[in-house]
Every structure is written in C-alpha cells, then in structure tokens.
Amino acid sequence: MTPMIDVIFLLLIFFVCTASFQALEEILPTNLSLPGAIAADVPVDPELEDLDEIVVKILWRKGRASWQINRRDYVRLDRVRAVLRAAAQIKVDLPVILDPAPDVPLEAVIDVYDLCRQIGLEKVQFAASDEA
Amino acid sequence: MRVNNSGEQRTNNGGLRRRFPCVAMLILALITHSAFAGQSSDRRFLDGLRERGLFRLAERYCRDRLAEPDIPDSRRAEMVIGLARSLADRAVNSPPADRPELWRQAQEEVDQFVRRHPENSRLPLVRLQAALGLLARGELARQEARLVADNRPLLDEAKEQLRAAIRQLQELNEEVKALLRAGTPPRARAPGRVEPDRLTAHELASLAKNIQYQLARALRNQGRCYGSDSPDRANSLTQAVQLLDPLAGLDSTDPLAWKSRIDQIVCYRLLADYATAARKLDALARQEPPPAIVLRARAEQIRLALANDRLADAVDALALGNRIDRSTSAELNFAWLETCLAAWRAAAKAKDAQQTAGWEQKAGEMVRLIEQNDGPYWARRAEMLLAGYVRMSPEAGDLDTLVRAAESSYRSGRFDDAVAAYDRARKLAAQRGDAARAFELGYVAATIEHGRQRHQQALERYRQLALAMPDQAKAPASHLLAIRHAAALAKQQGAGSLDQYTVLLREHLKQWPGGTSAGWAGWRLGQLRQHQRDWQGAIAAYRGIAPAAPEFSKAVGAAAQCYSAWLTERKAAGESTEKIGTEAADWFESLIVGPDERWPQQWSPLAQQAAVNSAKLRLDYTPAGYARAAKILSAALAGSPNALPEWKSTAEALLVFSLAGEGRLGEAGRVLQRISAGPPDKLLDMLDGLNRLAADAQAEVRAELAQLRLGAIELLRPRVGRLSQSERQRLDRVQAGALADAGRTDEALQKYESLSKAFPRDGRIQEAHARLLSSRSDRASIESALSKWREVEKKSPSGSERWFRAKYSVASLHYRLGNRKQAAKIITLVKLLHPELGGPAMQRQFQDLLDRCRN
C-alpha cells in the first residue's frame, strides 16, 4: 500500500510541475485607446513618428462583418489579413487600433484581434469612446 | 408594369365616381354604428370594410376603439380579433414582399392581448383568431407553391404554418371541450346575475364546432402539401373527412352545414375517391342549397371532372353559367379558368391551332373577369396560374397573355420567369413587325435586371436592344444605361476592366453622334482619357462635343486643363510645344468668334474663359504670343463689364504680364497704376490673379511674374496704413509668395514664419512655408522642413491631396537626411493603406522616390 501511495504522490507532483495553465480568454493583452488620451509622457519611437497607425473599423452590415482599414473598405477577412500581414512586415510594433461598431458581435471583434496576434502585430489596442 | 397592392389602391384609382359608393357606404356604416353601438354592429361594419378591401380603415377603426378608456372585455376581444383579421386579410392581398411584416403585426396583436389579458372571458375567441392567422398564411403559401417552378421553400413554409395552426386548434379544441364539460356558465344558469362578457354554453358549443371546421380545413391544406401518393396526404385528408362528418350532418340552417358538406366533397376528390365525391355532390344538389353553395358545387363539379380526366364534362359544366341571380363565386370563376387552361393544353397537344388560340383567348378573358369581380387576392392567384401555365407551355402565342404572365411573375418576385416571359413576348412582337412594342418589352426585361443590380446581364440587354433597334426613340437612353452598368462593373472589378466601358462610349458616339446623349458620352470619354493621362484622347473627346450640348462649357474648361498638362509634360521631356500650343490657342479663339469671324460686342462666360485659356497658352508656349494675348485680353476686358471678379483679376494680371512681355512696360505699368489707383481690393484681386498664374507657370515665367507682383506691392505700399487687417494679411501672403518665386528666400522665410504663427490652421500658408524650407539644402533647414511637413500632415485630413504631398515630402526629407530605410517604410505603408496614392502624378513621384531609396 505504502509504495503505491508514494507512486501516486510522485505522479501528482510531476503533473503539477509540468502543467501549463492556459491564460483566461478574457485577459486579452491589449489596451484601450481613448480619443485624446495618448499619453504624452510615453517616449515616442522616432521610427514610428512618421508611420501611420492602422485603424481597423469593424462594421456589421446585413448580418455580416465588414471592415475598414484607414477608411478603405474590405468585405473579405482574407484581404484584411493580407493588409495587416504586409503592415507587420514593415514594422511589427505598428499601432493597430480596433474600432468595432456598437452592433458588432464579440466574435467578429475577436476574429480580427486573433488575426493581428497570429500575424505577430505587437501593439493592438481597442478604440473607446469618452464614456468608456 | 401594373401594380396592384391592395384594395385601397384600386379604390383610389377608380376616381370619384367609383369612390362615391364606398364613401357613402362608409358614412352609412358610421351612422349605423352610432345608432346601434353594439358589438354585432362593430363586426358588421368591419366585415363591410374588409369586403371592400378597405383594410387600413378597418385597422384604424379597431385601433381607435382599443385606445378608448374602460373598454369592456368583450369589446376589447372583438376589436383585437377584428384588427388581427384585417391585418391578415391585408397580408393575403399584398405583394409577397409586404406580407411578412403584416403577418408579424397580426400575430403580435394577438400575443399582446393574450399576455395582458389572460383572464379575459373571450380569450378562446382571440386564440382561435391567432390559429386562423397561421392557417391563412399556410394556405396562401400552399396555393402559391402550386404555381412556381421551385416550390420547396413555399411548401416548407406552408407545412410549418399549418402544423402550428393544427397544434393550436387542437389545444383550443380540448380547452373548449373542457369548458363545456365543466358546466353551464353563470350567465345562462342565473339570469339574475348577468355577466354579459362570459361565453354562454350555446356560444361555447358554436365555438367548438367552428374550431372543428377550421381544424378540418387546416388538415385538408396540410394534406395538399404532400404528393398524391403520400401516406401523409391520405392521413391528413382522412382526418379532415372524419372531422367534417358530424358537421356535414348538421341541420341545414346551421351556418357550418353547407360549407362542411362542400369541403367534405373536396376532401374525397383529393383522396381520389371520385365515386364518393360524385355521389355526395349529387346528394347535395338534391338538398336545394342556397345560391352561393350551388356555385361552389359547380366549381367542385368542374374540378372533379378535370381530376378524373373528363375534360369534355368540365367544358360542358361551363354551360351551367357562373352566376345565379346576382350571386357570383370567385371559386367558380377560378375553376372556369382552370378548365380554359386544361382545354388550351389539350388543343395545343392535338395541334389544333384554332382551338388553341380560342382557349388561350378565353383564359385571358377569364383572368380579366376575375380581376374585375373578385378582388386582388383572386386576381393574383389567377395571374399566377396563367403565368405558371405560360412558363411551361412553349405554344403560348398571345402577346397580351405573355405580358400578363410576365407581370404576374414579376409581382410575385419570380424575376427569372418574368424576364423569360418578357423575352418571349418581345420575340413575338418582333415577329409580328411591331418594333416599338418589341423594344418596349425588351426594355422592361432589361430594367428588371437593372433593378436586381445584375450589371452584366442588364448591360448586355440594354446594349443589344439599343443596337438592334437604333431608330427607336429610347435606344440612346437604353445604350446609356448599358454604359452606366459598364461603369458599375468597372468599379466593382477595379481599374483594369475599363475596356468595356470605353468601347461602349465610343460605340455610343459612333451610333448616335448627333443625339442629345452624345454630349454626355463625349464628356465621360474625355474624363476617362484625362484620368488615364491620355491627353490627346481626352482633348479629342472634349472637342468632339457639340456646342449646343449642356456639357460643352465644362468640356472647354477640361480641354484647357488637358492642354496645359500635355504641354507641361512635353516641355519637361524636352519636346516641342509650339505647334500644339498654337493649335490649342487657335481652337479656343475659334470658340469666341461668331459666324462673321469677328469678336463679339458682349462676351459670354464661355468666350471669357476661352480668351483666358488662349492667352495663357500663347504666353507660355508660343514665342511671339504676347501681342496676340494682349489684344484678345484687352478686347475681352472691354466687352465684359459685368464679368465675375475672379475672371477679371486673372485677365488683368495676364494683360499686365503680356504687355510687359511684349516690352510695353510703360503700358503694363500704366495698367498696374490704373488698378492701384482704384480700390485696394481690386489690386489685391489682380495680385491674386498673378499668384494663380505663377502656380501653373514655368520657372522662368514664375520669376517674371514675381517681379511684377513685387512691383505692384510697391505701388500699394504708400496706402498700407489704410488697408484693413484682412487686406494686409492678403498682401503679406502675396508678398511672401512673390519673394519666394523671385529667389529672395530669406526674406520669404521671415514673412512665412510670421504668417505661419498668425494662421496656424491655414493649410496653404503652412504648406508654402514647409515647401520653402524644403528648398534649402542645409541640415538644419531640412530638419525644420521635416517638422513643418509633419505638422501639415497631422492637420490635413488623411487621404487628402495635401496629406499625400506632406507624406511624400516627409519621406523625401528622410531620404535627403540619409534615412533611406525609414523613407522606404513610410512610402510602403502609405501605398499599402492608400493604394491610389493621391492620383497618377503623385503615384509616379512616390514610386521614383521608393526606387531611389532601394538603390
């Protein structure tokens, strides 16, 4: 009996040590970007100064998501992916601001967010209104 | 195309004479209502409105009554039933697109009542109405499913609605039976304690019978949703027969008796038990039914014969007539139409042309009769039946029938069928030599595709129609619509697909060169060529526009822009410009002279514009053009006393410049002095004119213009103290520009710095300042310029022309500072986010800079 308890304890300790805990889905590594709330005391990367931030608006029309990147319309997510991938090739820490319309389902927002992370864009933020 | 939305519209279109009886009836009904304000009068009133197709009025009446305070339970229930029924009736009589909302409203009214008044004693009646709404919806879907090519969605909808109706009716049936079993309600048991809202035992019994009848109706419809050999069909119909059995055996005075007997015969026919159906029909005839039932029995007799493949018997039954005294039956008229179509089919099969044409004509007449007598619901059913038959019968040869079928298909949302029917009608009209009708029908078919936003199909149809019949009055308009669809396609598919659009524009100009639409096509072709920087092509298109066309005036302005751009490019490439410049100037002058080859006394705005264009070209591109320019400008200014100030200042500035260029400096000075002696704003206008000239001019010309401006400013200097604040600012602005153009950069920078501070939101000043800073080559100035351009970029709307210029300048300055990688990144990102890059000229500049960064 005793050896069996020893073995079980050893197995328990092994599993506890090797387990990797998955991050909770709601803890998205991102920030909220409020209009006019860009922190003045944060040092600005000189390389980023002349590079545009990428604003991805997520819209919901006729029961389907559509997107605008810097005011340009896209109706297919693979086109959005291509643009974001090309942007990441220019600079991976280009600021990307996700600006979903109020009626957009959360899944559609998460799709774009996941896309940004998959591509490797490091600085993904959410736009928020003043009331937020 | 004829639109028949509802009974109200029919009434409205009918004119005062047709409206009068309805209005009279309405007034009568209202009087009746006020005199006998009981529940039954309400019901009669609403029934009257609905019979006349005045559904909205019925709805309004019900809503008004429901809004009354302290309305009794029974009346509230009655009004909710009336409202739901009116909405359902309107849905049945409306085009398919309008129906879902009406069904929803009807359901919502009933549901709301059930939620808010669960204790209402009339609740079973309201719930019955809810089930009847579902039943009506299912029945309608089932009827329409018979007549469309792809009927599965409609059949599925019918089954779903009917299942729901049956479920509700069965539940209600059980509840009413339970109420009956529970005993006689108090009203009947104790007359002293009257509860008028409670349903009496008699009313409950009637309700139970009615539920049973409606349940049988729902089951009959459900059975018809399945194939003829389906056990589901047999099961549903058998249940219906069983339910109708006790009702059919009721005394003939019962309102449900006759209807149940007829419905039972229908069920037997649908079960293919023709012998029993015929026997029951004979028995019914012997019972001396009322006229309405006799007419329905005749309809059933015809259908029985048709189902039994006895066409001759069905045709013979037509001889019995379709009215008794003043009674008619929509059901019988419809059965007549079915007979006509069956006879038409048989005659066509037997290749009897005379009989075929005869029955086809009779079918058309029956549809018209149903339209006139039986209201929009039956009219639509008749049209759909006819359309369904025409769609499946290639032998249909009557133009009106085909058009009617096409209209019906269009109204019921079957656009492919409608287009196919219109095509057949068009071909038929063309075969008969009626070109105008053929064109009209083809145009309608194309317009259906246009309405569906099917650009390629609409384009082809409009184009083929216009080219096939170019002499028709609407042929150019049809071709123009084809061009618009080509434009829409090009927009969808990107800039690479403009070939079709170009071909169509050229085709239009070739086919209808003198038409009123040629101006529009020429203008569009010119715009396209201009966008493609094909200056010669654009100029040719603009010059081809007739002077009488409304687009001519703007085409002259656009042609001037094209000449200017073309000549600038040639000059930059070191090519000759004199010949083209002279030819262009001559053309502009030819627009000024009248038929007598003289300049006009009074110069029109077009002549004024042409004079300025001509003078500019002569000054810039012809070596000895100063004298000619001065002459034409003097004449234009003399003949245009009421010209716009902007034009006048430009013309005067050009005159000063041309006189100076000709060497007549004294005269130029005199003109300047004359202007400066007048109000200062006139001189400032002239200076603005010189500024505008300088913006487009070559470097050496710009320097000369700068000297002229500085001279003029000197003339104004003694009066500076008298200038207003805004005039001084204008003067400073002109002076800063002139100093920069004259190469006096330090002085210009000083001026711009103070202007920049004074006008931080003025894009022109900020940009000119940034540009001037960029013109210097020392590192400090370049860094200042970079900072200034960043400011311009931040303050300009993203994607605007100035924003692109600022972006380009920022990248260019990085390049000059040795930050090639950063410059390349900026351009690549701008190109990614804004692929149009601010137009072809900017695109080339960006690309050149990017290439230099990568080398």
The best one-word shape of chain A is: elongated
Report the major sheet of chain B: 2 strands, antiparallel
Radius of gyration of chain B: 42 Å
CATH class of the domain at 1-185 and 199-225 in chain B: Mainly Alpha
| Termini gap of chain B | 66 Å
Helical residue percent band of chain A:
25-40%
Q: Which overall shape of chain B is indicated by the principal axes computed on the Cα atoms?
A: elongated
Number-wise, the strands of chain A total: 6
Radius of gyration of chain A: 21 Å
- Main sheet of chain A? 6 strands, mixed
Beta-strand percent range of chain A: 15-25%
Structural class of chain A: alpha/beta
Could you describe the 3D structure shown?
The complex is a heterodimer of chains A (132) and B (855). Chain A has helices spanning 2-18, 46-49, 77-90, 106-119, and strands at 31-33, 54-61, 64-69, 72-74, 96-100, 124-127. Chain A is α/β, with parallel strands linked by helices and 132 residues long. The N and C termini of chain A lie far apart (61 Å). Chain B is an all-alpha fold and 855 residues long. Chain B has a two-stranded antiparallel sheet with strand order 1-2. The two termini of chain B are 66 Å apart. Among the domains of chain B are: 1-185 and 199-225, Hyaluronidase domain-like (Orthogonal Bundle), CATH 1.10.3450; 513-565; 780-855, no CATH class. In chain B, helix 10 packs antiparallel against helix 11 and helix 37 packs antiparallel against helix 38. The model of chain B is unreliable at 1-39 and 186-194 (pLDDT under 50). Chain B is built from 41 helices and two strands. The interface between A and B is medium-sized, with 16 and 15 residues.
Question: What are its keywords?
Answer:
heterodimer, A: 132 residues, alpha/beta, 6-stranded mixed sheet, 22% strand, B: 855 residues, mainly alpha, Hyaluronidase domain-like, 76% helix, disordered N terminus
